TrEMBL record:
GO terms for molecular function: DNA-binding transcription factor activity; hydrolase activity, hydrolyzing O-glycosyl compounds; sequence-specific DNA binding. Residues 175-273 form the HTH araC/xylS-type domain. The lineage of its organism: Bacteria, Bacillati, Bacillota, Clostridia, Lachnospirales. SUPFAM superfamilies: (Trans)glycosidases, Homeodomain-like, RmlC-like cupins. Keywords: Coiled coil, DNA-binding, Glycosidase, Hydrolase, Transcription, Transcription regulation. Belongs to the glycosyl hydrolase 39 family. Residues 424-451 form a coiled coil. Gene3D superfamilies: Glycosidases, Glycosyl hydrolase domain, family 39, Homeodomain-like, Jelly Rolls. InterPro entries: Cupin_2, GH, GH39_cat, Glyco_hydro_39, Homeodomain-like_sf, HTH_AraC, RmlC-like_jellyroll, RmlC_Cupin_sf. SMART domains: HTH_ARAC (SM00342). This is Helix-turn-helix domain-containing protein. The active site is at 465 (proton donor).
Length: 809
C-alpha cells in the first residue's frame, strides 16, 4: 500500500469522546457547527472553519445546533467533517527530532495565511481519491505546500505564551511521563517501573495519569503502541507478530486484544479491509458520506481569494514597434454540410455571425451529395444545380465567400466521442468517384463561372481533404489522382482558382507527411494552399480498442502541430502560397458540456493568441450547434461545439472571437496570456485570458459523460492571475480603461441556465431573456500616464477572458 504523509478522512459522526494521537490533525467543518474540547479549552467552528490539533493533545468534539450564521447547512445538529492527519513522526524528523507545535484556528483569527490554508486544505479534499498517474504527484505537491505553510506561518516556538497550552502539557511531570513512554514504548514498561523512575508511589502515579490524561496507564501506553502498529499495518508487509513485537506488545494476542478494544476488529481484518479500500481509492467512509463529500466539492469550487496570492504577469509594450495586424482567426469559419445552408435557422445564425464577427469565408462540405440533388455514381451521374445555386446565392447576399470542401464527411461522426466507429469510415470510394466524374466536375465549375463570373470564383477556395482526421485514410495515390483531375478541370475554366488540401491530421499521418509532401512537390498540379486539422487526440485503433481515452495531454497541441507541419513543408522545399488550419477545436465531440462554458472561450483565446501569425487562416470548428442537432438534443445546451446555441444564444466561445475582432489596426506585442494592439493615435486594445488546462480527471472518463456541475474539478487549478501592462511611450495624462469580462458569472450561458434550474421547456420570451442576459460584464476606471508611461492592471479569475479598451481622455 502507498504511504502518504497526509491522510484524509470524512465523517458525519456527531460526537467523538476525548482521545489523543501522535499525528497532527486538522479538523475542517464542511457543513454544520462543531464544539471542540481541547484539553481544558473549548472552541466552536462553523461551516468552512478549521482548527489544528497538535500531537498527543486530548481532544473531543460534538455537533451543535446552527446559530443561523450558516443558512442552508441542513438539520440543526447534522455535521460533515473533513479530517487531515499529518504524520508527526515525519514532521518531527524534518526538524531534527524536535517536536513542533502550532496554533491554527480560523474561528479565532483571520488573516491571509488562513485563506491560503483553506485553499490548500480544500485542494487535498479535492484530490483525496486520487490513486494513480500524474494525480499522485499533484496530490503530493499539495501535501507539501500545505505542510510548508503550517510550519512557516503557524508554528509556535518555546517561550511563546501559547506554547504550553498547545502541547496539552500542564506541568513538567506530564511531559516527562509522555516523553518516557514515547521513547520506550517498545520495551515492557510497567506502572511500577515508571513510578520508581519518578520517585512516586504507583498508586499516586495511576491516579495522576487518570486525572491528567483521561485514561489509565495501560490505555495510554497502548494508544502510543497502537499508533505505531496501525502505521505498520497500512504501509509495511510485516507479519502481525512482527508488528506486535516492534510496537511493544508482549505477543500477538496482546496486540489483538488492544486492537479489538479500540478498532472493534482484528489487525489482520483491518489490514485486509484497508487494502481493499485503498486499492479502490476509498477512505474509511460510507458511500453516503462519500456522496455528501462529492456534492460539497462540486458545489464549492476551490478558488483563490482576493487576499490570497495570485500569479503575477507583467508585459512591457513599446508602442513604436508596430506592424499591421493579421486577422487569421476571422478568415474562415466551418458551418457544416452544404445542405445545412438551405435551412432557415442556419442562415439566420450565419447572417448574425457575419454581422458580429466578420468572417470572410464560410467552409462547408458534402456539396456533391443527394441532399443537394447531386447523384454521384461511377457512371451516369445525375445532377441538378438548383439547390447549389440557392446556397451560393445566399452566401453572396450576406457578403461571405465560399470555402468549398469537395470531399465527404459523415453527419453522425462528430456527435458523442472519438471512437472506433469514426475510424471505421472509409471514404476512399467517394474520393475515387470524383476522379471518375470529370464531366460533372466540368459542368459544375462552368456553371459557377457563368452564374457568378470568373473574377468572383477566383476569390473562392476549393479544397480536397484526405479524410485523415478520423476516418480511414484514402491512399495518397488515389488522392493525387482525384486532386489532379479537379485541378486540371477547374484551372482550365478559372486559371487563378484557389485549390488546395489535403486536410492532414498530424497525429495520424505525421510520420508519412514528409514523403507525401515530397511526392506532391514532384507532381504537375500543386496546391495553392496546404491545410491541416487539429483536434487533440491520439487517434490509434489499438488504444481505442483497449478502451483508452484518446485525448492528448499536450496543452499546446495546436501550436506544436502547426510548427511540425510547416517544418515538413519547409524541409521539402515545397513553395506554397498559403498554409491553413481548416479545422480545430478542443474536441470532436458535440456532446461535451465544456463546449458550452467558460473553458471554451479561454481555450479559443489562448490558442489564437499563441498561434498569432503562425498560419494564414485558423478556421474554428464549428459556427453553430445546429450542426450537431439530433434526436437527443432536446436540452437548451447539449455540449455542441458551436459559437451559438441551437436557439441563437451567444456562448462564451462567441465572445472570444468578438473580443479578438475588436483588435486595433496595429499589432504591438503578445505574451502567453495576452495580445496588445493600437491605432497609432493613442487608442489601445488588449485581449487577455487565464486559461486552465485539464488535470488527470478529464483523461479518465469519456468526454460525453461529463456532468455540467462537475466541470470545475477537471482543471489543474483555479488560481487567479494579476496582469500588468506597461505601455510606453504614450502621452502623459488621464486615460479611460474599459474592461469587458467573460467569466463564470458574466457572459456564461451555462451559469444563466443554472439560475433557471436547467429547465428546457423555455418560452420564446425566456430564450430572448437569455440572449440578452448573456453578455460580458463592463467596468470602467481611469489610469494616469507619467513620464510617458502608462501602467494598466487587471485581475482574471480562472478561465476568464477580457477585452480591455484604453483611450486617452
Amino acid at each position: 500500500m502507498r504511504y502518504e504523509i497526509i491522510r484524509c478522512q470524512f465523517s458525519t459522526k456527531k460526537e467523538q469522546g476525548m482521545h489523543l494521537h501522535q499525528d497532527i490533525e486538522i479538523l475542517y467543518v464542511l457543513d454544520g457547527s462543531l464544539a471542540i474540547e481541547y484539553e481544558e479549552e473549548a472552541y466552536f467552528l462553523g461551516t468552512d472553519q478549521f482548527m489544528l490539533i497538535n500531537s498527543n493533545v486530548r481532544h473531543g468534539y460534538h455537533a451543535v445546533p446552527d446559530c443561523g450564521e450558516n443558512p442552508g447547512s441542513g438539520k440543526a445538529d447534522e455535521i460533515l467533517l473533513g479530517s487531515l492527519l499529518i504524520d508527526n513522526k515525519v514532521l518531527t524528523e524534518m526538524f531534527g527530532g524536535e517536536q513542533q507545535f502550532f496554533w491554527c484556528n480560523s474561528a479565532q483569527e483571520q488573516s491571509e495565511s488562513y485563506e491560503k490554508m483553506r485553499y490548500f486544505i480544500r485542494q487535498v479534499f479535492n484530490y483525496y481519491q486520487t490513486t494513480e498517474g500524474q494525480g499522485i504527484a499533484l496530490k503530493n505537491s499539495v501535501y507539501y505546500q500545505l505542510i510548508y505553510l503550517i510550519t512557516t506561518d503557524f508554528i509556535v516556538k518555546k517561550g511563546m505564551r501559547k506554547f504550553e497550552s498547545l502541547r496539552g502539557i500542564r506541568d513538567e511531570r506530564m511531559n516527562e511521563i509522555l516523553s518516557y513512554l514515547m521513547m520506550n514504548y517498545r520495551e515492557p514498561i510497567t506502572l511500577k517501573e515508571l513510578a520508581d523512575r519518578l520517585f512516586l508511589s504507583h498508586t499516586y502515579l495511576s491516579k495522576y495519569i487518570k486525572n491528567n490524561f483521561g485514561m489509565s496507564f495501560l490505555k495510554l501506553l497502548n494508544n502510543i503502541r497502537l499508533d505505531h502498529a496501525v502505521s505498520d499495518l497500512l504501509y509495511t508487509d510485516k507479519t502481525i507478530l512482527k508488528i506486535a513485537m516492534d510496537s511493544g506488545f508482549p505477543n500477538q494476542a496482546g496486540l489483538n486484544h488492544a486492537f479489538r478494544e479500540c478498532y472493534h476488529t482484528t489487525p489482520a481484518e483491518y489490514r485486509e479491509q484497508m487494502a481493499e479500500k485503498l486499492d479502490r481509492g476509498e477512505q474509511e467512509d460510507s458511500s453516503q458520506v462519500r456522496e455528501k463529500v462529492e456534492q460539497y466539492l462540486t458545489s464549492n469550487l476551490v478558488r483563490t481569494s482576493e487576499a490570497a496570492d495570485s500569479i503575477v504577469q507583467e508585459m512591457e509594450i513599446d508602442t513604436t514597434q508596430k506592424e499591421e495586424i493579421k486577422r487569421s482567426w476571422c478568415r474562415i469559419i466551418n458551418v457544416g454540410a452544404a445542405s445545412d445552408l438551405l435551412r432557415f435557422d442556419v442562415r439566420e445564425q450565419l447572417r448574425y455571425i457575419k454581422e458580429q464577427l466578420h468572417f470572410e469565408y464560410v467552409r462547408f462540405w458534402d456539396i456533391l451529395t443527394d441532399e443537394v440533388m447531386i447523384e454521384l455514381k461511377e457512371k451516369n451521374s445525375r445532377y441538378n444545380f438548383k439547390l447549389i445555386d440557392q446556397i451560393f446565392d445566399f452566401l453572396m447576399e450576406i457578403g461571405v465567400k465560399p470555402h468549398v470542401e469537395l470531399g465527404f464527411k459523415g453527419k453522425d461522426f462528430f456527435v458523442e466521442k472519438v471512437g472506433l466507429k469514426m475510424l471505421s469510415q472509409n471514404m476512399e470510394n467517394q474520393i475515387m468517384l470524383l476522379e471518375k466524374n470529370r464531366v460533372l466536375l466540368e459542368e459544375l465549375i462552368r456553371h459557377l463561372t457563368k452564374r457568378y463570373g470568373i473574377s468572383t470564383v477566383e476569390q473562392w477556395y476549393f479544397e480536397l481533404e484526405q479524410n485523415a482526421v478520423v476516418q480511414k485514410r484514402v491512399p495518397i495515390g488515389h488522392y493525387f489522382e482525384a486532386f489532379d483531375a479537379i485541378a486540371e478541370i477547374f484551372r482550365n475554366y478559372v486559371p487563378n482558382v484557389k485549390l488546395g488540401g489535403a486536410g492532414f491530421c498530424m497525429n495520424y499521418v505525421g510520420e508519412e507527411l514528409p514523403g507525401i509532401i515530397a511526392e506532391w512537390a514532384k507532381r504537375k498540379h500543386h496546391p495553392d494552399f496546404i491545410s491541416i486539422y487539429s483536434y487533440p487526440y491520439l487517434v490509434k485503433e489499438h488504444l481505442l480498442d483497449a478502451g483508452r481515452n484518446p485525448y492528448a495531454p499536450d496543452e499546446d497541441y495546436l501550436y506544436h502541430q502547426i510548427r511540425a507541419a510547416k517544418q515538413v513543408i519547409r524541409e521539402a522545399g515545397f513553395e506554397i502560397p498559403e498554409f491553413f488550419v481548416t479545422e480545430w477545436s478542443s474536441t470532436l465531440s458535440n456532446r461535451n458540456c465544456l463546449n458550452d462554458g467558460c473553458f471554451k472561450s479561454a481555450y479559443i483565446m489562448k490558442n489564437l493568441i499563441q498561434n498569432y501569425n503562425e498560419a494564414d487562416a485558423i478556421a474554428y470548428w464549428v459556427a453553430t450547434d445546429i450542426f450537431a442537432e439530433r434526436i437527443d438534443t432536446d436540452h437548451l445546451l447539449f455540449g455542441g461545439c458551436g459559437l451559438l446555441s441551437r436557439d441563437g444564444i451567444r456562448k462564451p466561445a462567441f465572445f472570444a472571437f468578438s473580443h479578438l475582432n475588436h483588435m486595433e489596426h496595429y499589432f504591438l506585442g503578445k505574451s502567453r496570456n495576452a495580445i496588445v494592439s493600437g491605432d497609432g493615435k493613442g487608442l489601445f486594445y488588449i485581449c487577455c485570458h487565464n486559461y486552465k488546462h485539464f488535470n488527470f480527471r478529464y483523461y479518465s472518463q469519456d468526454e460525453n459523460q461529463i456532468e455540467v456541475e462537475q466541470q470545475p474539478r477537471l482543471f489543474t487549478d483555479h488560481e487567479a492571475i494579476q496582469m500588468s501592462f506597461k505601455l510606453h511611450p504614450v502621452n502623459n495624462g488621464i486615460y479611460q480603461v474599459k474592461v469587458y469580462s467573460v467569466n463564470q458569472e458574466n457572459g456564461n450561458v451555462q451559469d444563466a441556465w443554472r439560475k433557471l434550474a436547467y429547465f428546457n421547456a423555455l418560452s420564446v420570451i425566456e430564450i430572448q431573456y437569455l440572449q440578452t442576459a448573456c453578455q460580458p460584464a463592463l467596468t470602467i476606471h481611469k489610469a494616469e500616464a507619467y513620464d510617458h508611461t502608462l501602467v494598466v492592471e487587471t485581475r482574471l479569475a480562472a478561465q476568464e477572458i477580457q477585452g480591455i479598451v484604453i483611450a486617452e481622455l
